[in-house]
Specification:
- With about 550 residues, this protein is of the alpha+beta class.
- The strands form 8 sheets. The chain has a 7-stranded mixed beta sheet, sandwiched between helices.
- Helix 8 runs antiparallel to helix 10, helix 13 packs antiparallel against helix 14 and helix 14 runs antiparallel to helix 15.
- The longest helix is centred in the last third of the chain and has 17 residues.
- It has 15 helices and 25 strands.
- A hairpin with a 5-residue loop joins strand 14 and strand 15.
Length: about 550
Amino acid sequence: MYTSRRINAVTLGLTLALSVASVSAFAAGESAVKGGTLIYLEQQAHTNLYPPAGGFYPNGGILNQITDKLTYQNPQTLEVEPWIAESWTTNADKTEYTFKLRPNVTFSDGTPLDANAVAKNFDTYGLGNKEHHLPISEVINNYDHSEVVDPLTVKFYFKKPSPGFLQGTATIGSGLVSLSTLARNFDALGDARHIIGSGPFVVSSETLGREVDLTARKDYNWGPKNLKQQGRANLDAIKVIVTGEDSVRIGALLAGQADFIRQVQAYDEKQAEEKKFPIYAPSTRGVNDGISFRPENPLVADLKVRQALLHAVDTKQVVSTLFSPNYPQATSVIAASAAGYVNLGDKLKYDPTLSKKLLDEAGWKPGPNGIRQKDGKTLALTIYESLPQPQNKEVLQLVAQQWQQVGVKLTILAGDAGSKVADSFDPFKTPVNVVEVGRADPDVIKSEFYPTNRDALLQVGGLSSKTKTFKDDKLNALLIDISAEVDPQKRLKLAGDAQNYLLDQAYVIPIFEEPQVFAGAPYLHDVTFEAVGRPSFYSAWLDKH
């Protein structure tokens, strides 16, 4: 009865009181309670569950429950440990990887998760599939082909060294799915029921855009061997309910009508903590939340203009005004917890006097309304709000105020505007863009800025057909070198070189290190998070259900 009352209250959007019912105390050392349905409120609906699209956190939050990975990255040590692969070997130049698989693993449709299935997964992720419109994964570089050595041994070959591949096999983008899933077109994979994985939960039903219901797989027995949790999940089921309104999510949690919520805004953290509802804020360990430029646009083609705008952003004010200590002020392109991080805070100093000087030198003079002009043009830029990023509209509004102080106008467009997708690939319509991506490997820098990956700068040969001239060969060479350098220390140095270069060119303005912030009920135990902050409910349990 308790579970059904909570589900109905949340689903029907009833008014939620903020009083908290008393909960039973959990005695130290008591074993996990089996059973129960976890109510998980998600800020946004998932879009597409093709695993390489799992970087979008609502997608990854589902994929992390229903798919397994070849390997497991320990979120504390960041070491790669066995999972579906029991062991692995690689040659010296990291162009060949061989994995030995666990026996008797099956997908939820009963088909074997064997070497043939693993080979097909990575051939698809590494090469894409044009027939089914399945794109290449951003976490796999220089992929050539697979070889099925025997039913439980698979070997992968790469055109050039690919030192990030092993970590890539542990990421959300490398979740293993059945051959029937890979046979579907990309558009069909927006339906969660079409994703057949081998994970501890399976999709039992879905109301598109509103709710996904997961049921524990009773025969699951192949979680990562180094985890305390083994066998089937403790929970019987999970209801993932899309609840866009921040106040409704936190209200439902505090009223006992939900057990776990994502995207707790910084201003709501205190009331949760005061009522003894724990806050979880795992780091995403990747490219920091910030702003990037599209230098194809003549308004931001001049280095001095970009430098002026970088030094016109007071990131300390943004963080102290809008966020909690869970959101550290950025001191480089990537987070301090990221692999290869170097502290470049001196290059990010707020200096509006320098900004004005640089804009003067670039020929942009204050106009009659205070906004700078040059050759009859106004220094007015446009950016789209990014809905997945926390308080992004408010962040951009503060940046706009700061830029206005040096004579630059920033117009913020709605994140759900119908023209957003097309305009975001047009540097002339959106010369400024929001950036952020999580991954616990130096390849994350390439993921964000390389033309054939996320292409944050919109270079020639990348995602934009509108870009005709802008290309930075030096940057691209650095990014390729990161993805191919087999010496760990040299690879970290290259990551540092890339961070320095991105800031020296003022291609990006890092603002804060983005965590994923969740809150849970005090009677929910043993929720864990993968290395870049997606929750896993495999070991979770409720002592009240």
